[in-house]
């Protein structure tokens, strides 16, 4: 049946005789015989939109495995923990699939495929041979029609001719397609033969425009019927009138995919054409992805490049990870360089991210991605391209918020789409590192062999129609020479487990830094010529200008920094590995033979890693080796925080630069990324000299508009400093208990910050921890968490969650959690006061004196939020199972203490308390140009000074403990020894070198004049505060200068006389004055006791 013959039949309006033969051979008798092929092994029923589907939490391999309602009713899973939900359409029922469910959980009608099962063997020989002829004839006939009559619109032909042709094609396909669907669904024997027929080569060759060097050439190739259907489905403009094609023929693939034989072919075709599928309107064949790419056997087969006859591989030498990452880079290249080529109505960000997540989550063998240097480079490059693609662009004639929609910000959507992949890759790296740590091989030789033998230069795409020069350029840049193909090779064969683990992590860090530094250099290259806001004695001590408010400035920043956030993930993994090392050494010390000295590796008996090494030591080493610019890194992850602060100050109108819309998206949808940004700032704080770090944070916050009041940026700067100091960053996630702890913290703060947190919202919070621990569904942790910390309340015709009681608040809530902003403080204050009133009333009822002592009586305790305390004083590290190693603990404590003593931080805190007192004293004339300071803003300054005194006490106590040989636990146990200020001064001189910036320029930058002349906190508080150079809170007349101690005493008196002090301002003032030895005689004895009690209170 040639093309000319088919076109003649079409012109005559008649059907080919072959169509008649194929239909007539399947009479009623034949159909009746096929109906008795035995009990089906799998269900495979196509699921419709909004259909009820069930996932068993005890038996399903992952969340993508589902039962239809009928199978669930006949399954043992009825008595298991399960979730019922409405499906979104697409996919099939997985009952009977041993790769999706435990064998014992199959329903009574499906027994599942066994290894080597051939459903066609149950057919009679004559029946089988007849079906082989029919299925092969059906598919070859249909594939030939699709080749001869392509479904794309030919504009050169009259519309009437095209419509007539489409009507004839519909007639020619209708009955044969119905027959194919019947054979695919009537039984598993006929379905197996249909699968084999789909792998048959087509009769007609397929013409392909293939690029040969710099020239194009058209070649003819014979492809399988299955691939011909894929190619037809990829047509740029499909005919919309061919109903049989749209609603029937394509569903043939969905009916056959339940047969394991067809999963590898479908998966390979999805991977072969993934680049093109990613940038066109969603196609039917894409709905098959979840059925094949989430199956462990399929992923393993495509990783190890095993053969699957009779199918012939169509993706060449590439593994599934090569294809996935190539497609991800393809979309990233378009988003970064040629976004105008992407169709506006296509969600290009979803598919490559989702498919990548499916594949890497399906099999533990996918972690070869973090061992192959080429694959890991591709992953890092994709993240950097995403980070380079989203910028805060100022409004022009062509762009602006009027045309801006967050959902169309492909870079931001791609980062959100890769959120779960981050969790998977995190576990991959940890798994490899943990295996090396214990002296085991992280992979079998069979798993690594395909990667070691892969070409050093990335192969050409198996899709001959793909010709995107920039994409090819990016792939070529991932070439390996002279580097080793495997990241493990650098560890050496004679090294012990600890050395191999450290060498492996060092390789990951170096590869990651190489791409990040190039991306940062490209961004900062927009600042030409470079100007500096702070100068120093050499080029290393110069702070470049980074002013986003200047309309003439380039705008290389954004809220999208996945490259930095992934680096933060690697740091967390390394910290977790060091914790595991510490635990192994502790176990070894309890079991080793007494005659052997020193710590030893569990597998070799040799010492390999000193427990006092800091987790940031390796990070500092790779930063130095790669010549990374710490100031560039700080700016990159600080700018989202600064932009949020500027929006809160009203510096970005809603129609300028789209910053307001992006900020709202950042604070709501990207909540986990906010915590990651602040964590990375915390890591950079550990790597950077304290004065230089604090000065850079201050300068970036201090960028203002000319008409902005002085001090408007103080609260946001102090809040960031407090978040860095008070958030517990040391404990990393390694098991289900860690996930529960972090999930509980996120749930509590979400409930506190919003009065509309329903169970649906809480499920969304739990979804952020998906794939964090393999096999753990975070949703299963919610019932116990909510039962412990929350209660249901009826509000506005809906049930929402509220904090359980005041004790739960004190144990879980922090005013300086990364998601808490200043505008939330009044609502949080109101909620806490209400909880305390309930607590007081409940206590009074228990004491039987409700009529005598009520919540409103003077004898009832006042509502005072827990005062901020340094985290390690609240919970000593040795009692925390997930705590950091000793070396990291020392560095962390030292850096936090030093940050709180820097002139940059203390000058802003001191200026704030002076400005607040000036405002409340009614000094309108003197404070006219200053931003009004509220009680909530005073809270930040008092908290900083309160923590600074705590830090001085820790420094002094640690020094005395070191000289006496006693452990430094006095601060944690509640005692308050006097501070030795000479020790504090010596400590600062030893560990806090000057920033290197010009002293005169720093004097102009810091809000308080003379702050640089004092060394210790005590000296700074005793110095008279004089503000000159710009309108300030005090004049330059020495007679009006006041010490900060005097101001603190007045603030204490003021808040002590108030009926309420929910933030504990008076208590913090008392503690500060006690620390510097300036306790006011007016402070009653009971006030001192209360201050002592609150400052040592542990929130749990």
Describe the structure in your own words:
- Helix content is 51%, strand content 5%.
- It has 1100 residues and is mainly alpha-helical.
- It folds into five domains: 1-38 and 121-256, no CATH class; 49-112, Cysteine Rich Protein (Ribbon); 258-390 and 408-526, no CATH class; 736-813 and 816-846, Arc Repressor Mutant, subunit A (Orthogonal Bundle); 871-1095, no CATH class.
- 46% of the residues are buried.
- This is E3 ubiquitin-protein ligase.
- InterPro entries: UBR1-like, Znf_UBR.
- Pathway: Protein modification; protein ubiquitination.
- Residues 41-112 form the UBR-type domain.
Task: Chart the SSEs and their pairings.
Layout: H1 3-12, H2 17-24, H3 28-34, E1 49-56, E2 67-68, H4 69-73, E3 82-88, H5 125-148, H6 159-186, H7 188-198, E4 206-212, E5 215-221, H8 225-233, H9 243-249, H10 251-256, H11 263-272, H12 274-278, H13 289-292, H14 296-304, H15 320-337, H16 350-362, H17 373-389, H18 410-417, H19 419-437, H20 445-452, H21 469-476, H22 497-524, E6 532-534, E7 543-544, H23 562-591, H24 615-625, H25 630-648, H26 659-668, H27 671-687, H28 690-701, H29 714-726, H30 736-753, H31 759-767, H32 782-789, E8 790-795, E9 798-803, H33 806-812, H34 825-846, H35 871-874, H36 886-899, H37 903-920, H38 935-964, H39 981-991, H40 999-1005, H41 1017-1022, E10 1024-1025, E11 1042-1043, H42 1044-1057, H43 1065-1075, H44 1085-1095
Antiparallel strand pairs: 1-2, 1-3, 4-5, 6-7, 8-9, 10-11
